[in-house]
Specification:
- The complex is a heterodimer of chains A (411) and B (480).
- Chain A is of the alpha/beta class.
- Chain A contains 9 helices and 29 strands.
- Helix content of chain A is 22%, strand content 35%.
- In chain A, strands 1, 2, 5, 6, 7, 8 and 21 form a 7-stranded mixed β-sheet that branches. A 5-stranded parallel β-sheet of chain A has the order 11-19-13-14-15. In chain A, strands 24-22-29-26-27 form a 5-stranded mixed β-sheet, with no helix packed on it.
- In chain A, helix 1 packs parallel to helix 3 and helix 1 packs across helix 9.
- In chain B, the strands form 5 sheets. In chain B, strands 1, 2, 9, 10, 11, 12, 19 and 20 form an 8-stranded mixed β-sheet that branches. In chain B, strands 13, 15, 16, 17 and 18 form a 5-stranded antiparallel β-sheet that branches. Chain B has a 4-stranded mixed β-sheet with strand order 6-7-5-14.
- Chain B is globular, with a radius of gyration of 23 Å.
- In chain B, 57% of the residues are buried.
- By secondary structure, chain B is an alpha+beta fold.
- In chain B, 30% of the residues lie in helices and 23% in strands.
- Among the domains of chain B are: 153 residues, D-Amino Acid Oxidase, subunit A, domain 2 (D-Amino Acid Oxidase, Chain A, domain 2); 85 residues, Arc Repressor Mutant, subunit A, CATH 1.10.10.
- The chains are: A alpha/beta (411), B alpha+beta (480).
- The interface between A and B is large, with 56 and 61 residues.
- Strand 12 of chain A pairs antiparallel with strand 23 of chain B, so a sheet runs across the interface.
Chain lengths: 411, 480
């Protein structure tokens, strides 16, 4: 029996482990599938990480190292090159590596911190040929930053998610020509600062309401056909345009990797593709917690660390038998607010609610209702789907709460 | 000098090579691509048809039924996944019922066993997710599913294990009949000699036939587009579900695959370009719009990829298996049910070769058994741990989505016919075939390929030729 097993040694897994340690848990094991700790941050060599946490701009590996160094100092055990194949509702974990072979661990508590994967070309059903030269932006990032190879020289990027924007700049810095970034939506899903620093500073056009409708080239990409889309996202025939390129990078969304969570029977939210959780980040299976991009996709790693600390602290409470689950207040959304994390509150304490909106809204008022009564409101000059929002509900606001609804009022 | 040369490393060429390798013969398969199973054999419905579809009396009917009977045993010997899941042809009205009755009669004439016509209640008991509007179905329990490229690779691998040669990147440009043998020359100027030649060149079988002065054979490609769904959708149906063919077309079939995915397709569009395997927006939307005709609850959010295959449609309506020149056999126009018929086509061609005077002496050393590519994954935990203890590479998972280890990938590059590119590794191991489509594992597989093949990282291709993955190193810059 291991008290706490953490699946994933990226920023979420490491933060969770440290928080659990600081809250008295000593019997911890981190299982990491890669050959190093740090997760995707290893390949994010650009800076901008840690502004909220550390008040300075770190690169991905620097940010990860702050946590890894501490994990090593405290001697928290971890296994690398170890792939978790399965977990059960009884918290038995089956994993594989070269040294232990296939082995099982019985955990008292589990923290899911497996991160996410990129949506692939296939999931979009882009027509055309299937040549070399179509990569997800993260794969290209790995090739360039970790392996030292260029996936192409003339590039079109579909999707203006943050990785796509970062890769537009990265490819440009390495001498490639990025001809355009096409975005299906009328707004970018990336951070405003990335549009400025990664596209505008490099004179890369961002084509909003555009998509790639066809890939050309038998063996290697020779070009793509792009088109403007109408308000329903359908390509408009007479706007089709051929762009010659040897590479198509895709930054079309991230999907939490919850296959093993599903197999354990954990309830998964169809909007976030992550588990339903309480404010303690406990999933539908008691003692199984989730945090980071496996729970919902974050734009800032600082928030991942914060969320993981919540999961770590509460896993420690669970192990000690002190986790509070005395009330049950569900949180609903109005559609303009797409989702919240957590989706339920089970303890009357100050609670941070993270959420994303469905569209770009200006002059929006965020309102929290208990039944018909507004118990909290705050105004924002602009909210966008690419930027996660956060409000804090004080414990006293929850005194008489039964069912919360969070919505946006737009003027 | 080879006894027999087979032009085309698809399922027909592969099954023939494998069957011929049980005799004392020098064999060579020539394939124009960088790997085998690169044409219709890698992109089709993956079904072993029961045999009720073909017109009685045709080669298609005869060889389909015979092939379907042989397939289970062949698959077992070759270690290829095969599942007799049964086919259902679903009808919605009286017109459909009539056609189903015709199919039943045809099936009986063709010698298909266990056929029956079932009514709505039995149909919906068999398959909960069939459209509630369905009123009847043809039930063909002998219909089965198989992985067509796995079968082709295994057949050619087994032939090679038994002594056959394989030459890839050998595109035949000339056939020269000398007195006793043919000279077969490639576009690169390589040449092999063989006493007998079998043309199994798929969509290009007419061009190859023309090289032997046969110009009556005409093949045109018929495009079929497919959409593949994640394994989370694989359990939606257990049978292969066809819609009753009508004047509106054949409809879109819905079938589980042997690997547990759900496959939707195909479209059918006659084409001219024999290399145009591009998918089309129209084709894919046709698949997506019509797949729900027979089956409810298909979750298109589970789509992981789409692809397109070109069926080799001949100009006679039937398979064209004939000899138009001395010691030269055509296996042309092998469209559906070609995969199902392939073991029987091999048998049929061997009879022809025999009657042409090819001497067939049993090869005592012939081993019909091939180690299954998926043996490791399907072994018990204890057995896998024994293998990992012996070779640690089997404990290192490279493809997360399909759970494929480094050991299995290295094995695929070392086993006949060796994988030489990323797609080759994919078809042999399923690495890159899961929901992330290689996003995570591609850089690692490239590394393993470069190590195993002893070439640089940047020379690895997706599928041979100019399909390079890498255009150069970083810090090299490039002209702008």
């Amino acid at each position: 029996m291991t008290e706490l097993v953490i699946i994933g040694g990226g920023p979420a897994g490491m933060s969770a482990a440290l928080a659990a340690y600081e809250n008295g848990v000593r019997d911890i094991l981190i299982l990491e599938r890669d050959e190093r700790l740090g997760g995707i941050l290893q390949q994010c060599i650009h800076n901008g990480f840690g502004l909220h946490r550390f008040g300075e701009e770190l690169t991905g590996p620097e940010y990860a190292w702050r946590y890894e160094e501490r994990v090593r100092e405290l001697g928290i055990p971890f296994k690398l090159n170890t792939m978790v194949m399965n977990i059960t509702a009884d918290k038995e974990i089956t994993a594989t590596n070269s040294i232990d072979g296939i082995f099982t661990i019985q955990a008292k508590a589990i923290i899911l911190a497996m991160g996410c994967r990129e949506r692939s070309r296939g999931a979009l059903n882009i027509a055309g040929t299937r040549p070399a030269g179509v990569y997800s932006a993260g794969t290209a990032q790995k090739l360039v930053n970790m392996k030292g190879y260029m996936p192409g020289k003339n590039v079109v990027i579909l999707g203006s998610g943050d990785i796509g924007l970062i890769m537009a700049r990265r490819m440009s810095l390495e001498g490639a020509k990025v001809k355009a970034v096409c975005e299906l939506m009328p707004y970018s899903g990336g951070l405003a600062r990335n549009i400025e620093q990664c596209l505008n500073d490099f004179n890369i056009p961002l084509l909003l309401s555009h998509t790639v409708v066809k890939v050309h080239g038998k063996k290697r990409v020779e070009g793509v056909t792009i088109a403007k889309v109408d308000q329903f996202g359908k390509p408009i025939e007479d706007t089709m345009e051929f762009i010659e390129c040897d590479t198509l990078l895709l930054s079309v969304g991230l999907i939490p990797e919850n296959e093993i969570s599903r197999s354990a029977g954990i309830d998964i939210n169809r909007i976030t593709n992550g588990a339903y959780v309480t404010q303690s980040r406990e999933t539908s299976i008691p003692g199984v917690f989730a945090c980071g991009n496996v729970l919902h996709v974050h734009d800032l790693v600082d928030y991942v660390s914060e969320e993981a600390e919540i999961a770590g602290e509460n896993a420690a409470l669970y192990i000690k038998g002190e986790l509070k689950n005395d009330i049950d207040i569900p949180i609903e959304t109005d559609g303009k607010v797409r989702y919240t994390v957590p989706q339920r509150i089970t303890a009357k304490e100050d609670t941070k609610i993270f959420f994303r909106v469905a569209n770009v809204y200006e002059n929006a008022t965020i309102k929290v209702y208990n039944g018909d009564e507004i118990i909290f409101k705050t105004s924002k000059s602009k909210v966008a789907p690419g930027e996660m929002q956060c409000i804090t509900l004080k414990a006293q606001l929850l005194q008489n709460a039964e069912k919360l609804r969070i919505g946006l009022e737009v003027f | 000098m080879y006894d027999v040369a087979i032009i085309g490393g698809g399922v027909v060429g592969g099954m023939l090579a494998r069957a011929l390798s049980s005799y004392k013969l020098k064999l060579c398969i020539v394939e124009k691509e960088n790997d085998v199973a690169m044409g219709a054999s890698k992109a089709n419905s993956a079904i072993v048809h029961a045999g009720f579809d073909a017109e009685p009396g045709t080669l298609k009917a005869k060889l389909n039924v015979r092939g379907s009977e042989m397939m289970e045993q062949v698959a077992k010997e070759l270690g290829v996944k095969y599942k007799r899941n049964g086919s259902l042809v679903v009808g919605f009205n009286d017109d459909d019922k009539k056609i189903i009755e015709e199919l039943y009669e045809r099936g009986i004439k063709n010698g298909v066993k266990e056929l029956s016509i079932i009514e709505s209640s039995e149909l919906h008991t068999l398959e909960a997710n069939i459209s509630p509007d369905a009123t009847c179905a043809l039930n063909a329990p002998t219909g089965a599913i198989i992985c067509p490229y796995e079968l082709t690779i295994a057949a050619i691998g087994n032939a090679m294990d038994n002594g056959a040669d394989l030459k890839v990147n050998f595109e035949v440009s000339k056939l020269n009949l000398c007195n006793e043998f043919y000279e077969i020359t490639s576009t690169d100027g390589d040449m092999i000699k063989a006493k007998y030649v079998v043309n199994a060149a798929g969509v290009n079988a007419d061009s190859v036939a023309a090289m032997a002065n046969e110009t009556d054979i005409k093949i045109h490609p018929r495009r079929g587009e497919y959409v593949l769904l994640d394994k989370t959708s694989g359990g939606l149906v257990s049978h292969t579900i066809f819609r009753t063919p009508s004047a509106m077309g054949k409809g879109i079939l819905v079938t589980p695959t042997v690997d547990g995915n759900l496959l939707l397709g195909p479209t059918a569009k006659d084409m001219e370009d024999k290399s145009d395997t591009a998918t089309t927006a129209d084709g894919l939307s046709n698949v997506l719009a019509n797949c729900s005709e027979t089956t409810v609850g298909i979750n298109l959010r589970d789509t992981i990829t789409s692809f397109c295959g070109l069926r080799a449609v001949g100009n006679t309506g039937d398979f064209i298996i004939n000899s138009t020149a001395e010691r030269f056999i055509n296996a042309a126009g092998i469209e559906s049910p070609g995969l199902s018929a392939s073991p029987a086509i091999a048998e049929y061609i061997i009879d022809m070769l025999l009657s042409m005077g090819l001497e067939l002496t049993k090869n005592e050393k012939f081993n019909p058994i091939r180690k299954p590519a998926h043996l490791f994954r399907e072994s018990s935990v204890a057995e896998r741990n024994r293998i990992i203890a012996e070779n640690r590479a089997y404990g290192r998972i490279i493809c997360r989505c399909e759970g494929v280890s480094e050991g299995e990938i290295r094995e695929a590059i070392r086993t006949n016919p060796p994988a030489r590119d990323l797609d080759g590794v994919k078809r042999r191991t399923r690495a890159q075939m899961g929901r992330c489509q290689g996003g995570f594992c591609m850089p690692y597989i490239t590394e393993i390929l470069s190590e195993e093949l002893g070439v640089t990282y940047d020379s690895i291709t997706k599928n041979g030729g100019n399909s390079k993955l890498i255009t150069g190193k970083t810090k090299e810059g490039c002209e702008r």
